[in-house]
Amino acid sequence: MSLIRQATPDDVDRLAPLFDAYRQFYERPPDPVLARAFLSDRLRQAESVVFIAEEGDAAVGFVQLYPLFSSTSLAPGRLWVLNDLYVTPAARGGGVARQLMDRSRRLAEETGAVGLELATARTNSSARALYESLGYRPDDQFLHYELRL
User: Could you tell me which residues come within 8 angstroms of residue 66 by beta carbon, excluding any fewer than 6 positions away?
Assistant: First the structure.
């Protein structure tokens, strides 16, 4: 079982290689300097919450969440977007992703959130199976659009 804890700006050097590997998984070019700067900014400015998974001295995974609010529900609590989840190949299949997802849910509960939402590649069948086993359901009511600038 991994130790899951909230990351601080002091963890950026340990997280940056994982974050860069996550980006490469989604076919982005490696950029460890930019990955480190991005994470450092998010953590220093308290713009996201990152949980890190550790096994011994090794960082083996992370999850990053961003806060939003729901205008349509008018709920007083926020909505958390689970934007990034990554586990090193060597640690996959050992329950690390499930532990990170469980900790994310606890964050949502602790902060009185109305929910968690996430997106993944349609082809990422292992992630989809994990999310569905945890009660996440595909959105069949709304189409999601994006404008790349």
Answer: 47, 48, 80, 81, 83
**Alpha carbons 83 and 66: distance in angstroms, whole number:** 7
Query: Six-digit token pair at 40?
Result: 């450092």
Spatial separation of the C-alpha atoms in residues 68 and 47, rounded to whole Å:
11
In sequence order, the 6+-apart residues with CB closer than 8 A to the CB of 6 are 49, 50, 51, 52
CB atoms closer than 10 angstroms to residue 91: 17
Sorting pLDDT into bands at 50, 70 and 90, what band is 76? confident
Q: Indicate the pTM of the whole model.
A: 0.93
For residue 70, give both structure tokens.
């729901």
Q: Residue 72: what pLDDT?
A: 77
Residue 59 C-beta-side C-alpha neighbours within 13 Å: 20
pLDDT at 46: 95
Burial (CB < 10 A; 0-12, 13-18, 19+), residue 57, is exposed
